[in-house]
């Protein structure tokens, strides 16, 4: 399964830590990677005064399904501009490779291809890189 980052992530992001290694078994909702992003927030340093400040925040991305991490499609320090593939997950029973946000996992528990949010062109492009 090719794993993609969700569209709700505030892009661009920078990959700061890869928490799993290729061939690691991954349970559903295990943390896979840590990333940082910049966002603007409102601060109130004085009563009645609003100041918009840009801050760098961090977050982690968790495995959407269980499986075996086949391959990372990103490296430390990679800046991801959109919800591209980050890894692949191999599902043993189905013998299929799933990619998610640049992560390749091997998994046997995905219930439906409808859980994948990419089209056939994305699959072909991603498969060509692996």
What is the number of independent domains? 1
Structural class, by secondary structure, is mainly beta
Shape estimate: elongated
Largest sheet: 6 strands, mixed
Helix content: under 10%
Computed Rg: 17 Å
Strand content: over 45%
Mean pLDDT: 75
Number of strands: 10
Please name the defining characteristics of this protein:
130 residues; mainly beta; 6-stranded mixed β-sheet; 4-stranded antiparallel β-sheet; 1 helix; 45% strand
Please outline what is shown here.
The protein has one domain.
Describe the overall structure.
- The protein is mainly beta and 130 residues long.
- The chain has one domain (2-33, 63-129).
- 8% of the residues lie in helices and 45% in strands.
- Strands 1, 3, 6, 8, 9 and 10 form a six-stranded mixed β-sheet that branches.
- A hairpin with a 4-residue loop joins strand 8 (85-91) and strand 9.
Q: Layout of SSEs?
A:
Elements: E1 2-4, E2 13-18, E3 25-26, E4 31-43, E5 51-62, E6 67-72, E7 79-80, E8 85-91, E9 96-99, E10 103-106, H1 120-129
Parallel strand pairs: 8-10
Antiparallel strand pairs: 1-8, 2-4, 2-7, 3-6, 4-5, 6-10, 8-9, 9-10
């Amino acid at each position: 399964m090719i794993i993609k980052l969700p569209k709700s992530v505030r892009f661009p992001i920078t990959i700061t830590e890869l928490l799993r290694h290729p061939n690691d078994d991954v349970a559903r909702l295990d943390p896979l990677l840590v990333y940082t992003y910049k966002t603007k927030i409102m601060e109130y340093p004085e009563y009645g005064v609003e100041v918009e400040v840009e801050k760098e925040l961090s977050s982690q991305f968790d495995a959407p399904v269980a499986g075996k991490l086949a391959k990372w499609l990103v490296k430390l320090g990679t800046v991801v501009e959109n919800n591209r593939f980050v890894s692949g997950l191999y599902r043993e029973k189905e013998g299929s490779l799933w990619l998610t946000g640049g992560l390749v996992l091997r998994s046997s528990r995905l219930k439906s291809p409808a859980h994948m949010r990419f089209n056939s062109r994305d699959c072909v492009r991603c498969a060509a890189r692996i």
